[in-house]
Each structure stands twice: as C-alpha cells, then as structure tokens.
Amino acid sequence: MSEKLERLGRLLKESFGDRIGEPLLALGELTVVVPSENYAEVMLQLRDDPAFRFEQLMDLSGIDYSEYTGYQGRRFAAVSQLLSLTHNWRLRVRVFAPDDDFPVVASVMDIWSCANWYEREAFDLFGIHFEGHVDLRRILTDYGFVGHPFRKDFPISGYVEMRYDPEQKRVIYQPVTIEPREVTPRIVREDSYGKGSGRG
Length: 200
Hints:
200 residues; alpha/beta; Beta Polymerase, domain 2; five-stranded mixed beta sheet; two-stranded parallel sheet
C-alpha cells in the first residue's frame, strides 16, 4: 500500500507544485498541508481531476495545536479525510488558519455538501470560521453557549451554567457556581489496610 501512496505523493507534487506542502507518508497514511490561500482551488481539483478523483469527504474536523508538544506554528487547523473510490486511496489534507485570534479558512461545502455539518461542528467546538458557508451556526452546544469547548484554553467547568428557576418558571443562565478544588487524588490508608479486619 505504501508504494501506491508514494505514487500519489509524487502525483500531488507534480500537479500542484508549490501550491501545497511536501506530502508526508507516515504510519500508512499520506498527509499534505495546503496553505489557506490555495485551499479551495486545491480541494476542487482533488475532487474533479481524473488523476485524483476524491469523490468523498469522509470527515472534516478542527484541531487546536496550542499545547502540542514542540510545535511552534499556527494554532488552528481544519483537517479533511478524503477518499477516492475510483483509485482506492485516501488522503489527509490539513489547512491552517492564518490568524490565531480569529481563525478563518474557506468552506468546502460547495465541493462536498456533507461538509455542511462537519464545518458547523468545527465552528461550534473550535471557533473556526468557514468563509462561504451558508449556515454557519452552532450544532452541538446550546445557542446561548459562551465560547468554544474544544479549545485548549477553555475551562473544564465552562463559563456559565443553566438551571431551572421555579420563580421565573424558565431555564436561566448564570455564572458557574462550582468552587475551585484540588483535583489531585489523595489516598489515605489505615495501618491495617489489606491485613484483614478479623471479622468472620
């Protein structure tokens, strides 16, 4: 299988040149990084060019690299998993948002319609905006949710909590009331632990 993927890697470099990064073959999978300014046109060609024919977008997800060990590049990326049924090969495509404060990459929803919900999920959980998406709104969290819960700097307890207020007879949002606590486990054992209780 690696011989086939090596051939795909060579074909990618011949077809796209400096519009893509160097294809990386590792652990039986081929990955290519595409600069954000080339992303939409490269993805369209990957679908339509008979040499590639990636008819299916199997998955698209966001990634926050802010705490990735030894990594010094851009913080947010959208990663797509493509499948060619014609050629029976797969490709992972990674695109980094150029701005860490307001991450934006092009939408591929017009290329693969199934990207609709995938991009909404990446927007909801990571705050990545997909330019050209016609209905970019939250899909997993509540409409009133504050922040993006898969970002590495999002607090485990969140920012707000909701509860039913019997006086107002409705659900309300309020600041989180959980008191900070030590989360390191503490084990306390008695001297007689494991020696039997002497009870019969």
